[in-house]
């Protein structure tokens, strides 16, 4: 499990990341039924999983963990959760300590690579239009931001530029 996993998240946790982009100004009381990790659900059925994801999505929390897997629901609109502040916030944090986020996955892959000196792999799957390319871009953005070299060498632009070519080639 996660070293500092919160599991069932109640009100008052991690105020910096609660209900991002919901426009409620934080005045809305978070529901006790809001789970950041689907493994914390007491009853695990398709219905309870979808209900938990739906409830989070309505509050603009598009990311939810299923243990070490990140479930992302395409919001089809801009959410202000990808700026450098968030790269910094997730830097060197154990998975599950902060709210679920694609930057948390990137950060864990990056730091595990450094620690173990082994290549890491992030598998992104989903149906067409679900946000795989966008998620890949966010991952690369975070990885290059975490790497000092990435910032000066323009490697993010180079990798992102290669994406469409690779997609065309299947
Ligand atoms: N996290 C996100 N925030 C905002 N918009 C998003 C996000 N993820 C996806 N989108 C929107 O959804 C659209 C489709 O996403 P994307 O192209 O990443 O899907 P895909 O899974 O790669 O699709 P395909 O398999 O057809 O290539 C994007 O152009 C973008 O407008």
UniProtKB/TrEMBL annotation:
ATP binds at residues 126-133. InterPro entries: Kinesin_motor_dom_sf, Myo9, Myosin_head_motor_dom-like, P-loop_NTPase. It is found in: Cytoplasm. Residues 33-170 form the Myosin motor domain. Keywords: Actin-binding, ATP-binding, Cytoplasm, Motor protein, Myosin, Nucleotide-binding. One of its GO terms (biological process) is lamellipodium morphogenesis. GO terms for molecular function: actin filament binding; ATP binding; ATP hydrolysis activity; GTPase activator activity; microfilament motor activity. Pfam families: Myosin_head. Residues 1-28 are annotated as: Disordered. GO terms for cellular component: actin filament; cytoplasm; lamellipodium; myosin complex; ruffle. Gene3D superfamilies: Kinesin motor domain. The keyword Ligase does not apply. It comes from the Eukaryota. PANTHER family: UNCONVENTIONAL MYOSIN-IXB (PTHR46184:SF2), UNCONVENTIONAL MYOSIN-IXB-LIKE PROTEIN (PTHR46184). Belongs to the TRAFAC class myosin-kinesin ATPase superfamily. Myosin family. This is Myosin motor domain-containing protein. It comes from Hucho hucho (huchen).
């Amino acid at each position: 499990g996660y070293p500092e996993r919160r599991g069932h998240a109640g009100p008052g946790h991690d105020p910096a990341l609660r209900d991002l982009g919901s426009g409620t100004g934080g005045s809305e009381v978070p529901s006790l039924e809001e789970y950041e990790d689907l493994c914390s659900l007491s009853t695990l059925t398709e219905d309870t999983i979808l209900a938990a994801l739906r409830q989070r999505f309505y509050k603009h929390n598009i990311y939810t963990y299923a243990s070490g897997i990140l479930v992302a629901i395409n919001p089809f609109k801009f959410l202000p959760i990808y700026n450098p502040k968030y790269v910094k916030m997730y830097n060197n944090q154990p998975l599950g300590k902060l709210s679920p986020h694609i930057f948390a996955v990137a950060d864990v892959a990056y730091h595990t690579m450094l620690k173990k000196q082994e290549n890491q792999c992030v598998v992104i799957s989903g149906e067409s239009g679900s946000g795989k390319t966008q998620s890949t871009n966010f991952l690369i953005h975070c990885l290059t931001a975490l790497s000092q070299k990435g910032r000066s060498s323009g490697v993010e632009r180079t990798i992102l530029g290669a994406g469409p070519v690779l997609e065309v080639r299947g």
